[in-house]
Amino acid sequence: MKPTLIYLEPELGDLIEIFRDNYEHWAVYVGAGFVVHFVNHSGTSVHTANGTVRKEKIWDVVGKDDWKINNSMDSQYEPRPANAIVKDAKAMVGKELRYNLVSFNCEHFVKELRYGVAESLQVEKAALGVVGGAGVIALAVRGSVASRNGLSSF
Questions:
Q1: Domain limits at 128?
Q2: Measuring CA to CA, how many Å separate 31 from each of 73, 89, 149?
């Protein structure tokens, strides 16, 4: 039996973690029942392709999957002001960015909006699991975001 998650009303700028079958999808809450998220729209490869920033109703993005508010990095990084997160997220809607599963995915996107730092803990955990604990991969993943495009002006 799946654990039941408690669904709280998100606040502006909250990060939403959505539990898909084999991964987590991430979005940022921008108010009035809407989220902004970064979606890879390539049917052939999830590693490197183009993606689009979309604004959609939270329930259309979540579907039947479990989700939770996940601002767990607030203890590590100072969150940007909610109005700045929302303004920047909405300004990105409709933009096409280079999607890379390892260096710039939906989790990197929303964490850069909230914290000014693009990180993906699920990528770091996966890299550590594949390599058997070698921290070099996690450091390389963090360093690779410097080559991304589109969000470095926050």
A1: 15-147
A2: 21, 11, 26
Helical axes 121-131 vs 135-144, angle rounded to 10°: 140
Q: What share of the chain is helix, strand, coil (3-state, %, to 5)?
A: 35, 25, 40
Question: What are the pLDDT digits (tens) for 44-84?
Answer: 445 567 899 999 999 999 999 999 999 999 999 999 999 99
Note whether 80 and 26 are within 8 A (CB). no
In 10 A of CB 138, how many CB atoms?
19
In 32-139, DSSP assigns E strands to 34-40, 48-57, 66-69, 96-100
Which pair of structure tokens corresponds to residue 3?
Answer: 């654990």
Give how many domains the chain has, as a whole number.
1
Residue 3 falls inside a structural domain: no
What is the Cα–Cα distance from 60 to 67, expressed in whole angstroms? 12
Domain membership of residue 42 (yes or no) is yes
Residue 88 token pair: 């920047």
Q: Which residues are catalytic?
A: 25, 37, 106
